[in-house]
Task: inverse folding
């Protein structure tokens, strides 16, 4: 079992998100804080695509899942990767 940073989103929580989310929720999925997320968005370096809607940012959840390389049924990522050395 993995221990997530306080407030960080786990794989199952991410897969249950609605189609579009606010930047703070997306930041939690990346393990980023609010201030860092907004700084990255302002500089154009947020880890996934953003939509500016008035004064706020929205993230398409499908893009977030793609960037995080999460697939349904993958597990929580806590299992060790199989070794190719066999």
Result:
């Amino acid at each position: 079992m993995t221990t997530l940073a306080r407030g960080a989103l786990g794989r199952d929580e991410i897969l249950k998100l609605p189609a579009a989310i606010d930047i703070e929720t997306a930041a939690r999925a990346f393990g980023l804080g609010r201030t860092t997320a907004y700084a990255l968005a302002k500089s154009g370096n947020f880890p996934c695509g953003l939509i500016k809607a008035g004064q706020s940012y929205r993230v398409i959840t499908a893009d977030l899942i793609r960037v995080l390389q999460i697939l349904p049924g993958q597990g929580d990522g806590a299992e060790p990767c199989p070794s190719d050395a066999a």
In short: The radius of gyration is 14 Å. Residues 11-68 form one domain.
